[in-house]
Amino acid sequence: MGTTPKHSVSVAGIVVRDDGRVLVIRRDDNGHWEAPGGVLELDESFEDGVRREIREETGLEVTVERLTGVYKNLTHGIVALVYRCRPTEGITHPTAEAHEVGWMTREEVKSAMNPAFAVRVLDAFDDDTHSRVHDGINLLPP
Asked: How many CB atoms lie within 10 A of CB 112?
């Protein structure tokens, strides 16, 4: 079968507090604001991966509520499954992967994040599950 490139699978959590603010991190590797998340490990479920990534990047424990979207980065071959979560315990703090951790409103998310990552947060407030493609920065037509 040739050398067809493979996809990478990642997970991310949109953690929403009772006041509607969303947990965000400023990534240490690229300086961008995003929801916490990362590559899914081979031996874990999607939900376990979301909980692990959020805990590793922010120190917070969460309950995973539901899948809100599937997003494909066409440039890098990454498929991301994004879940809405709610915080359960812990205190957020910077980590090796996230040099800033904070809580943003939806309006702040729109202005601070690249469109391809802001839409993940905004989609988590909808009742529907979304499927979108992007180039790493901007959404692309379906």
From this structure: 16
Please say whether the beta carbons of 33 and 26 come within 8 A: yes
Q: Facing residues of 73 across strands?
A: 78, 134
Name residue, tokens 């957020």.
92
Helix (H, G, I), strand (E, B), or coil: what is residue 4? coil
Q: Tell me the per-residue pLDDT of 22-81, one tens digit each, with 9 for 90 and over.
A: 999 999 999 999 999 999 999 999 999 999 999 999 999 999 999 999 999 999 999 999
Q: Both tokens of residue 115?
A: 């469109």
Helix, strand or coil for residue 54? helix
Q: How far is CA 142 from the centre of its chain?
A: 20
Contact 58, 98 (CB under 8 A): yes
Contacts of 59 (CB under 8 A, 6+ apart): 90, 91, 92, 93, 95, 101
